[in-house]
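Entry 14. Structure prediction run on the chain below.
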Amino acid sequence: NLGFHYFSRREYEAAAPFLNRAADVRADDFNTQYLLGATLSQLKRTDEALQHWRVAQKLQPTNVRLLQLLVVEYGKGRYFNEAASTAQLALEAAPSDLNLYLLAIKARQDAGDQRGAGDIAKRAVELFPDSARANFEHGFYLQKIGDVEGATVFLKKAMALDSTYEEPPFFLGDLLVKLGKVEEAIPHLQAAIAIRKDYIPARVLLARALMKVDRQSEALQELNETVKLAPSHPQPHLLLSQIYFRIGDEDR
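Output returned:
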């Protein structure tokens, strides 16, 4: 209780020794192991946190909140396979929670299992057809495997479901640029930037698209704005140098 008192006040250094003593007295107490793991996580002692959370998991193997924390912590520690397998356990424990599908998709992607991520995304969109995020994740996977028609359908549906979600228009624009449909891509990239002003990848891709269709002055304007937002990002400077070279301003 004293450890919990300090934890609730975010005094993690003070909480840790008392929770450690509690764990020494009763190693089979779930709350102690859970809270000690959370405390050590806050102190950036990831491996120690995982040790106590693994003990807690053995005591309550279907505790979804704990499983979610483990997935995140495994990911931070770059234990990607462990994160993916733990995310699967969380899904099995609560198969109607959309957030767990999204967590599992990312964990699979981080582990390099694109097919597994795609399978989960497909299940998610079947269960949650009105979720913009589920539609986006499925469209993103279809784009990865070259199903252009399917990807377009789900990305457009995600855009229709949530007009404030910047990822679908960006990835649809990216897909269209790769297909050589640059003019068609430009409005989607502009839409993504309108939603999120500091979306640097979208700004860089938009500038590239404008350069491809010889709209150099618009590309210059976009790139100068991008440099203001992210002065240390190399791509805008590289593209600016290419434009100035094309128009004969070699000094700039």
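The two ends are 65 Å apart (CA to CA).
Filed with the rest of this week's runs.
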